[in-house]
Specification:
The structure holds two protein chains of two kinds. Chain A is an alpha/beta fold. Chain A contains 13 helices and 14 strands. In chain A, the strands form three sheets. Chain A has a six-stranded mixed β-sheet with strand order 6-7-8-3-9-10, sandwiched between helices. A four-stranded antiparallel β-sheet of chain A has the order 2-1-4-5. Chain A has a four-stranded antiparallel β-sheet with strand order 12-13-11-14, with helices on one face. In chain A, strand 12 and strand 13 form a beta hairpin. In chain A, helix 4 crosses helix 5 and helix 9 packs across helix 12. Chain A is elongated. The N and C termini of chain A lie far apart (about 50 Å). By secondary structure, chain B is mostly helical. Chain B has one domain. In chain B, helix 3 runs antiparallel to helix 6, helix 4 runs antiparallel to helix 6 and helix 4 packs antiparallel against helix 8. Chain B is elongated and about 60 Å long. The chains are: A alpha/beta, B mainly alpha. At the A-B interface, helix 4 of A face helix 1 and helix 5 of B. The complex binds adenosine-5'-diphosphate (ADP) and magnesium ion (MG). The site of magnesium ion (MG) has 5 residues of chain A, from helix 2.
């Protein structure tokens, strides 16, 4: 009886205090300090975006919080339960969708979800009912009886997320849920995650994509080299970088030096150059675009695009760490067309202009 | 404990449901042993002297033991895949019995081992093998084989958890166990080997397993082989099962 009850929602879980509280958590692998004293809190019912480049320690923190890894030092509680001492009880309350979709490729979607439900202690018939419910919710009904090796990346991700939700956890951990997905699947998954939060779950989401954190997270924690380097809402973080930024995309990359010279006296710091884009905070907002165009025209520099905007999380990251958020991503090497730093910006630029 | 049992059954079911969807694995249980039996019987068999016994009678118990010892490779491959595809992380984040992931594998191996015993025995019967023992001994022989197979599944479980890729899991198992099965009484009489090999073969558990099977199935003198075989199988299990479970507990999946 007790076990059957565990699969249904437990409204009291995590009702008091933060859903996640982390104090001084450190974890080393040999000489690598993957986590170097992390503190953070996540209020119940909110989404925390854990942001950081590859190797920052995001997955390690998720593994500590989901009882997969014991910290070397420090303490962490999730839903009021200690991740080490109460690990067994905690596993009833959390859902994990790891960095790689953890589905059995030789089972169907239905079989995968049913297995997870039964491992939570549900009877086979209850587990099947819950699985059917989740397939419906994640738009996988038609694919439910196919083995998952035939699924697309997006479908596999959705199934993985569904598996994390089988026991209606109050705290959900999503480790880079949209990495490797095409833009349409990403947006669909974002909507799913928003639905999850609307239902009252607390979500900790790791990501390398700044636009993702910007859209989904109530608050953002930036980590690098296992340490928290900034914490706050997206707006607070952007404010730390300062005023409006002028971004000029030149017609020709050769003109970068000339453009930098021409704009020198109207910006407050040395412009950052990314390919043929030159950007820097402006001293004064009013008339900045007209003034910039006039100066560049005078200098004989062709302008492709010009924009005055609030700083993005990209800028925040650059300012905090001295390197772009995605500069260490492996697949950048394969993408010779565009310099790494501009890649993560596409999505936001599109949203910015479209909306 | 009840939890361990029910979770083990859930995972054994998972592993068996998968099996027919992996035709290459099924071939390994069926076509491969048949091929080996035929090769030994018709290529080497004529040149191997086995006293008053027809070679096919001598061969089948040895062949069954060898193929049962390798039955656990499905566990090695499957566990290795589970570690590297993140499924082990999922399982470890669930409120389930931890040893069940391993026990579910090794239990599923018992079923596939049973299948391959059938295939080998039927093949043997077609090419001239016959049981020369009471039915109770034949059944006891099958039980002994399943016990040996189960013990080796735990060895393979450890290999699968430790190996960096499925390929290396496969070759570690192969390199460690394959020679052991040959330097034994499985395919040729130990007396025909050079002194050093013979000394090894005499104490090799495979010699004991095979001699136990011969005594149960074709009525060769039994000695203490059967109890010796049971003791060896239990010893292997008692060493490797805890090692594999300990390794699983700290499997990182990175
Ligand atoms: N099991 C492990 N063994 C050794 N080093 C590890 C292990 N897991 C992570 N690391 C190292 O710890 C650091 C943080 O890794 P990780 O938490 O995976 O970062 P992220 O998820 O932010 O990319 C990296 O330097 C990584 O190489
Ligand atoms: Mg990671």
């Amino acid at each position: 009886m007790a076990r059957a009850a565990q699969i249904s929602a437990d409204p009291s879980a995590g009702a008091a205090g933060p859903a996640i509280a982390v104090r001084g958590v450190a974890k080393s692998f040999g000489s690598v300090r993957a986590l170097d004293g992390v503190d953070l809190d996540v209020a119940t019912g909110t989404v925390l975006g854990l942001l950081g480049p590859n190797g920052a320690g995001k997955t390690t923190l998720v593994r500590v919080l989901t009882t997969l890894l014991e910290p070397d030092s420090g303490t962490a509680t999730v839903a009021g339960l200690d991740v080490v001492r109460d690990a067994g009880a905690l596993r009833h309350r959390i859902g994990l969708a790891g960095q790689y979709a953890a589905v059995d490729e030789d089972l169907t979607g239905m079989e995968n979800l049913t297995m997870v439900g039964r491992l939570y202690g549900a009877a086979r018939s209850d587990a099947r009912r819950r699985a059917a419910e989740l397939l419906e919710r994640f738009d996988l009904v038609d694919a439910g009886d196919r083995v998952t090796s035939t699924y697309s990346g997006g479908m596999r991700r959705r199934l993985d997320l569904a598996a994390a939700l089988v026991a209606r956890p109050r705290v959900v951990f999503l480790d880079e849920p949209t990495t490797g997905l095409d833009p349409r699947s990403r947006i669909a998954l974002w909507e799913t995650i928003e639905g999850l939060v609307a239902d009252g779950a607390t979500v900790l989401l790791t990501t390398q994509y700044l636009d993702e954190a910007d859209r989904l997270a109530d608050s953002i924690t930036v980590i690098d080299h296992g340490r928290v380097i900034a914490q706050g809402t997206a707006d607070e973080l952007k404010d730390r970088v300062g005023g409006e930024r002028l971004e000029v995309t030149l017609e020709r990359e050769d003109d970068v030096a000339a453009a930098t010279r021409a704009l020198e006296t109207m910006v407050s710091e040395e412009p950052a150059v990314r390919g043929r884009t030159v950007g820097a905070p402006v001293r004064s907002r009013s008339g900045a675009i007209a003034e910039a165009v006039r100066r560049l025209t005078e200098a004989g520099v062709g302008v492709d695009d010009i924009d005055l905007r609030r700083p993005t999380l990209d800028d925040v990251f650059l300012a905090l760490t001295g390197h772009a958020a995605e500069e260490r991503r492996e697949d950048d090497a394969a993408d010779g067309i565009e310099p790494p730093a501009t890649r993560g910006r596409r999505g936001r630029a599109r949203r910015g202009r479209g909306g | 404990m009840r939890r361990l049992l029910s979770d083990t059954l859930i995972l054994a079911e998972r592993n068996l449901v998968r099996l027919p969807r992996k035709p290459e694995l099924l071939l390994a249980f069926t076509v491969q042993p048949i091929m080996f039996v035929l090769l030994f019987r018709y290529v080497f068999g004529g040149a191997i002297r086995t006293g008053g016994l027809a070679y096919v009678e001598y061969l089948i118990p040895g062949m069954v033991v060898q193929s049962i010892a390798f039955g656990g490779f499905v566990t090695a491959l499957g566990l290795n895949e589970d570690v590297h595809k993140g499924l082990v992380d999922r399982f470890r984040s669930l409120p389930m019995a931890r040893a069940a992931v391993l026990a579910g594998r090794t239990l599923a191996d018992v079923v596939t081992n049973f299948l391959s015993i059938w295939v080998l025995v039927l093949t043997g019967l077609v090419i001239g093998f016959s049981f020369n023992a009471p039915a109770s001994h034949v059944v006891a022989g099958v039980a002994l084989l399943l016990l040996i197979g189960f013990a080796f599944s735990w060895v393979f479980a450890l290999v699968g958890l430790v190996a960096s890729t499925p390929e290396s899991a496969n070759s570690v198992g192969f390199i460690a166990i394959f020679p052991l099965t040959f330097i034994s009484s499985a395919f040729v009489p130990v007396a025909s080997m050079p002194a050093a090999l013979r000394a090894f073969a005499d104490v090799n558990p495979f010699t004991i397993f095979v001699d136990a099977m011969r005594s149960l199935w074709i009525g060769t003198p039994a000695g203490n082989y059967v109890w010796g075989a049971v003791a060896w199988a239990l010893a292997i299990m008692l060493v490797f099962a805890p090692l594999a479970v300990a390794r699983y507990r700290r499997a990182t999946g990175s």
